[in-house]
Amino acid sequence: MKKIYFVRHCSADGQHKDSPLTTIGMRQAHLLSNFFSKENIAIDKIISSPYLRAIESIKPFATKSSSEIEIDDRLSERILSDEPIDDWIEVLEQSFNDHNFALPGGESAKDAIQRANTVLESIYSDDNIKNVIIVSHGNIMALLLQQYDGNFGFEKWKELQNPDIYLINYNTDTSTIECLWNA
Ligand SMILES: O=C(O)[C@@H](CO)OP(=O)(O)O
């Protein structure tokens, strides 16, 4: 069995890829670090979205455990459109219901799942890796988790917190997910 800790980043000051964590977010990043220390489990790899808020969220734990943070573009947040959109929540809901739906310059849910899944697949196929932390974003996280729990749709995305942690207990025959964060 493998354990994939899927982390949504801590509170951030905006949605730009360079938006930093807020002061509260920085405190949350230390709580995340405490959480993983208490798990008392050897983490083989930390992989993060290239967005600053994701990297900053796991930095305290990476420093404490003397681990490297591997940056992977495939964990970037999904782009809904290349134009600013006022009703992005409705667009997001539509895209959960229709995985082929995409606005001009945007990525469909299907394409987002496909590219982020290649990260999970490379973990699943590597016998030397057992426990991994992935740090990413709400939308991509909800789409990936939907594959393990069909109820994980738009409503569950709305319930996600900053930060949040879902554990994927991966087995070749059956995999389960559980929410580990209840701050
Ligand atoms: O809420 C989300 O799903 C996304 C929106 O793009 O952002 P975040 O990086 O805050 O998780």
UniProtKB/TrEMBL annotation:
Gene3D superfamilies with a match to the protein in the record: Phosphoglycerate mutase-like (3.40.50.1240)
SUPFAM superfamilies according to UniProt: Phosphoglycerate mutase-like
InterPro entries: His_Pase_superF_clade-1, His_PPase_superfam, PGM_Phosphatase
Top-level EC class: isomerase
Assigned keywords, A-Z: Isomerase
Pfam families from the UniProt entry: His_Phos_1
EC numbers: 5.4.2.11
KW Chaperone (keyword) present: no
GO molecular function: phosphoglycerate mutase activity
Keyword Isomerase among record annotations: yes
Protein name: 2,3-bisphosphoglycerate-dependent phosphoglycerate mutase
Organism, scientific name: Virgibacillus natechei
